[in-house]
Amino acid sequence: MKFSIRKILVFSFLLVTLIAITFGLVQHYFWLHKHERERVEQDYLRVAESLGVIIETIFNARLSLLKQVSEEVSEAGINTEKAQKIVESVHYRNPDFKTFWIGDANGKAAAFSPLYDKEGRKNIGRDYSDRDYYKKIKELKRPVIGGIIVGRVAKEPIIPLAAPILDKKGDFKGFVFGAFSTENIQKIVRSMKPYGRGMITLTDEYGRVVARSELVPEEVLKDVSSTAIFKEAEKNKKGVADYISMFDSRKKIGAFYNLENGWKLWIARDIGDINQAIMSSFYYAVFWGILALLLALAIAYVLSVAVSKPVEAIKRHSEQFAAGNLQIPEERYSGSISEISGLNKSFFKMAEELNELYRGLEDKIQERTRELEDANKELQTMNEEFQAMNEELQSHQKELLEANIRIAEISKTKSDFLANMSHELRTPLNSIIGFSEILQDQSFGELNEKQKEYVDDIYSSGKHLLSLINDILDLSKVESGKMELEASAFALRDALDSSVTMLKEKALKHSISLSLDIETDADIEIEADERKFKQVMFNLLSNAVKFTQDGGSVRVTARSVHSSQITVHSKVNSSQFTDYGSQLEKKSSAVNGEPRTVNRELADFIEISVVDTGIGIKAEDLPRLFREITQLESPYIKKYSGTGMGLMLTEKLVELHRGRIWVESEYGKGSRFTFVIPASQRRTKDEG
Q: Do you find a cis peptide bond into 114, omega within 30 degrees of 0?
């Protein structure tokens, strides 16, 4: 449907009139809206800031208290009776905490008030490592305020407050936690009465409701993070925003304030009354709109005559250009209205520029097409190269996987071979040892001195070879994972006395002093594999006696230590157990410098040292200790017997007990071999 210029002018003026009416209504609405927003900014925002400062002051005071307690606990120790007394005292003096407790580095409660929950279960030992506030305080190492949660002991909504416990180096050792009650915050919020029935809402950093002016139990922890005012508060410290309430689904206008800990506070008012004010002025605007409509009709008639002729001329030229004829016509009627005349001139100028642009456009399109074709070819080439590289990478990965499988099969075959050969060799060796013992007893006739010497050589060599075969069998069991601990309780003194007695005769032959020193706190029963424990002691004492010159000394010491007292030294490197948590993690080898990870449970340990005044070990030889079948002597200039498997097996047996062995030595002065194992293997196994 087409309209003449005159109809267009009439409708245009009518439209102007309608726009004027609409503009009046909109203007009135925005004026009222601006007025209310300014009042919200002046009154509600000021109240929101004041209330936010009050809440921040309360939180800062509680965090200062937690920080003070953390310093006291750091000095007293986390897992101590003093720490428990501190917790109970602070909780008694601060009843606004639902619970008050201390957590270790791994998130487990080490001291707790109250000691038992409502069901009578003990609270110490509870695991809170999955809580967000634990992860945050462990990462930031500063006091934090967590989001509102339901306490596992309090069984009601609480505000988590926590302060870290740091050592002198600044390392994280644990934290002090207070479950702050939401009741005090709710009382403060209810006591505020903003004008116009303003509603106060307080949420945590995640948008969960903490308190409201008219809070009902079902609204606590309600997620309002999707509301527009919450999203606006995440972007700005303070301000005003419109939003749809999630409680009554009505549109609100509110002033918000962002607390230092990320919590949001806003005071909102329903804007229904604003809309009513807008409607009251609607009829007044309609009256003036009707007057404007009558005036527009009169003006439209006059202007339609003056405008129609030049406009029709422009229309004819436009149709010519639309048909593809860009030639500039000679007829250029502009009319008497200056604006239309200017429009006509601009129109013809545009036509000239369009004609020039059209002529150069085809050349640019062809040039751009060629560039795109070249780029497409280059991309195809790169794609083919990437595909070839991907295929080569997959081939390498397949080869590595096959190589790893072959290595695992070879290692298993080696262990099985050693185990089978050891069993096959022990049977004839036992026969040789048994017959040599019969010959030593001279049950079938007396032997001359030469025969006795030969029989003794046969017996000692057989026993030595049987010991080597047993070591090989034990090594194969350890490597294949078939060796297990047979833990039992036995007296540490008896086991050490027995081990020293086994080597006493050999030491006396070389005038070597062999002594045993057990501290009082170590004279206890321990839980370990007694046979393997004695084998470790025998290997260490045998080496100490073997490499100690005549007239020297070998001393065995034993003491009870805590995990925090254990320090590993060597000439190659040194490292320390530093984790006070439920598991001790040690990263780096105590001897050869090769990185590894060994876990320790938080328990008492037994430390045993074998100290000799022997030949010692050179610094450059220390990294070679505890390696499989390694001797520090050259096989061509050996002065001492042995295969080098003893220390390797010793280390594996100690590690099987969840322990660690290391050496301190000075060449020419002697060596100290020390190993540490938990006092109770059953306890570490259950807790591990």
A: yes
